[in-house]
Amino acid sequence: MGYQKKAIAGFGWRQFFYIVNNLIAVGRIMILARLLTPYDFGLFSITAISLGLSEAFTQTGINITILQSKKKINFFLDTAWVIAIFRGLIIAILVALFALVLPHFYHETKLVNLIILASLIPLIKGFINPMVVSLQKDLNFFKDTIFNLTRTISEAVLVVIFALYLRDATAFIFAMIGSASIEVCLSFLIFKLKPRFKFSKERAAVIFHNAKSLSPMAFLDYLHENLDNLIVGKILGTNPLGIYQNAYALSHKANYQITQASNHSLLPIFSRIETDKIRLRRAFFKSFVFIGGLISVTSAILFLWPSFIVNLILGAKWHSAIQILPILTLAGLLQGFAMLFYSLFLAKAKFKPINFHLVSNVLLLVIFIWWGSSQAGLVGASWGVVASRVVSLPILVCYAYQVLK
Hints:
- The structure is a single chain.
- It contains 16 helices and no strands.
- The protein has helices spanning 3-35, 38-57, 62-68, 77-98, 102-106, 111-118, 120-125, 133-137, 141-166, 170-189, 201-236, 238-273, 277-304, 306-313, 325-347, 351-404.
- The chain is globular.
């Protein structure tokens, strides 16, 4: 099978995963939106920020390094596992430290227990067998899809069970802890090759060499995706943040995950043909037109019928999300196009364009969302996201032209 066919097969399986994942996510949110309040979602969003910031700040680039390398995964396996375990421990400590800051910043004492409980998640996930990356590296997209679906289904089932019993934001955290534990177990059950607690300085040096560029990129990417939550929660409060978070999730799920599906299959293939500029240019433009068309169609559905979608999925108490859903859908479409450029730059190990775009976007995001939230509440914040992405997108276009010419 040629790379084009592999790309189509990979996209197909990954898209199948995202279709099922979206159906599960919709079913999950339909239940949770009726069991929990916007306030609960807002608390969880703030807790997730502490978790995500810690993970992004300690990014080592293990998966990207393995995907980009021409060496077999066995070369990195033991060292990658040791690094992942210690990284999980460091993240857990950092998350716990956020429990000293965020509750005071948002004036929410309930965040203390939530954040401390959430610190267990990275500690558990650090023990995942790095062999899971081989599914993507070896273009084994079917097994990769099954593995990820198992994780998604387990978390969805657990969060509904906990929400039925607890009726508060801790349901999200307990579900993530349970899902992480299942993921660790599966990663050792489905692979014959198991990592050993053995560290190699030489092999670690290869991983950490990429980390110099990937850590800032991961940190900036997280800020780019979550800084709006920080600002909205601070200026408008926890309850509006819960409404904003679910509207954002609805508006970005479809097109964002289509792009993720394409990147998942295209990155290993782009990496294999990155030295053949003509072939790479042709593959990039074909994928850009095809994926761009798909995300435009899904965005149109959300843009045209926001009232129907919000009432169907979230229910009456989330009515405030209707006015911001079309705006955030436009923001999601712009982000989808940006991610297509990212797969090209990652395959070429060109981190500078991504980092420059993210820095620009983060700075613009702070300016536009802070001003928009202060002037027009959730509507202003939503237009702030759109404005930051419109202004920063030409940066990626210019860099892509230089890479492909």
